[in-house]
Design a protein that fits this description.
Two copies of one chain form a homodimer. The first copy, chain A, is of the alpha/beta class and 330 residues long. Chain A folds into two domains: 2-121 and 285-329, Isopropylmalate Dehydrogenase, CATH 3.40.718.10; 125-274, Isopropylmalate Dehydrogenase, CATH 3.40.718.10. Helix content of chain A is 47%, strand content 15%. Chain A contains twelve helices and eleven strands. In chain A, strand 2 (31-37), helix 2 and strand 3 form a beta-alpha-beta unit.
């Protein structure tokens, strides 16, 4: 069984939906869960949900790091915050991985301080296959690094290649760079300088520029971009998907039968709001496995995040990343 | 009647679709058209399409500036290229505006050289209401300026405000800045510096950050961003719209009747591929009215671009922009 520390207090729907997600995951028989938060609240919820007998153990924490707070100051003022206690369990090898639906900044800062960065990583990143129409293309960084330099983009390319290899068993994953023209001369300063950098490193299977519309159908397994741009892509995709679903519901409910309409909406939503489906993505580049999910996550998304922990543990992602980063750091 | 010079040789479907678009526009009785290109080809197409009697006059040019060519070198090597001849007609006040579906870079370079920039403009921009779910929100820059400085963003805010005022008769248009968090502290270096700049100028009705998902439903009439980010938003929106249409076609054609399916697809397409619908957007900041459309434009998009010329001429957009820019340039 894989053991996971779950931050029961982080996220918009904590702790109720987080606890329900934990129960769902525990019932698969694949996970042993340390449920971290306020013991009184959590024990109450567990007994209400009739979770006795499941491999869920409550671990006490004090306080939560909220979205929008300064992560560094919060780490100091709330040393026993739920996410920090989770990551402490990982540091002491009590668990294989951590899941939180709370503040990404808080999870990242706590991971960097407690676990440290893998040698050769300048900044950790967040990435994943966020466009459901291209299920074998992962994009990074998705928002943790704005104002990147080419060295960061090189980090992202390596992290992404190891991700694609571990996730889809692709031998030599193709890497593209997000730009606003197909020709290599097109793009901003960062893109042009990054291309020059990529061409220095033969272990990156660089295939050139990927335009934003090509993200829907690209031969690149990994697409690298600045975290500002990546976050724009993530949030715009989610927003457009929801707008299309709402539009179809509002204008076609009298013309299409309810069941078919629901199926169309569900298909569009799943392909555009992928983080909801997968439950979350890992923080790439830290010495340990920490999965950060959507603040809005419901129980099913929380349960799905356990799947991400599972494939990353089983594929030994972190170990492989250390090996690959050593090659470009020399 | 509004007189327009139309670049018959620019765009993927030139000259056939451009000529058909010209005929469509001429038949409305609102436009007099100078059709610029190779006279032999154009006369042949016009007679084939039975366009005699319409207010379309062929004007000779030599060569075309293609997408991907260096605009500045092409202007030198092809001084009589179709887009340059069009803009020359505008410079000599033979026409009220220019429409081209050819190279944006070529049209922009030719406009800057022949018409010049309005006082106070550092760089011209491209903008428009590109997300059909928010028909009263215009985004700029859409791709002509990458690596912007706050002074450029201030230009965009003024250009956008005048656009929103002229287009929708909004008295004091609201201006937002695209960022990846709702709080003003969130964003990259450019966003943070731009916010400080906007707050210096009371004539900009600045309402704060707009997140990418909020573009679908924002109180901002104008959203300002770097051209790299704007082009990502434009192309991703187009690509996602097409992917959704294709998906619905592939998976639901046996479950939804053909007519309803076509309507759903058409609705989604129109709301995500808006440039196709409007035919194109103006180059903002140059001394004259030049509308640049989609390279892939078909006849209907070409004809629609005449509508853009019409409202811009009638609202005296360029004059108003000069007045407003003078206020922030002091």
């Amino acid at each position: 069984m894989i053991s996971v520390a779950l931050d029961a207090m982080g996220g918009d729907n904590a702790p109720e939906e987080i606890v329900r997600g934990a129960i769902k995951a525990a019932k698969t028989g694949q996970f042993k869960i340390a449920l971290v938060g306020d013991p009184n609240i959590l024990e109450g919820l567990l007994s209400k949900e009739q979770a006795t007998g499941l491999p869920i153990q409550v671990v006490a924490s004090e306080g939560v790091i909220f979205e929008g707070e300064s992560p560094i100051e919060s780490l100091k003022s709330k040393p026993r915050a739920s996410v920090s206690v989770c990551i402490g369990l990982l540091r002491h090898k009590k668990v294989d991985g951590v899941i939180t639906m709370g503040s990404t900044g808080g999870a990242m800062a706590s991971s960097v301080f407690q676990l440290g960065l893998i040698d050769g990583v300048e900044r950790p990143a967040i990435g994943g296959e966020i466009i459901g129409f291209s299920p074998r293309t992962m994009l990074l960084d998705l928002g943790s690094n704005v104002d990147c330099r080419p060295a960061h983009m090189l980090n992202f390319a390596v992290m992404g290649s190891v991700f694609a290899n571990a996730r889809w068993s692709i031998g030599n994953p193709t890497v593209g760079i997000l730009s606003i023209g197909a020709e290599s001369g097109k793009g901003n300063k960062l893109v042009k300088e990054t291309i020059a950098k990529f061409e220095e490193f033969s272990q990156i299977n660089f295939i050139g520029n990927v335009e934003p519309n090509e993200l829907l159908n690209t031969p690149a397994n990994v697409v690298v971009c600045d975290g500002f741009v990546g976050n724009v892509i993530l949030k715009l995709t989610e927003g457009l998907g929801i707008a299309v679903c709402d539009y179809i519901q509002d204008h076609y409910s009298s013309m299409v039968d309810e069941k078919t309409l629901s199926m169309i909406k569900e298909d569009v939503f799943q392909r555009t709001n992928v983080v909801e489906t997968f439950g979350g993505g890992p923080i790439l580049g830290v010495k340990g496995l920490v999965v950060v999910g959507h603040g809005k996550a419901q129980a099913s998304a929380v349960a799905n995040a356990f799947g991400t922990v599972k494939w990353m543990v089983e594929s030994k992602y972190t170990d492989k990343l250390e090996t690959e980063l050593a090659k470009v750091s020399k």
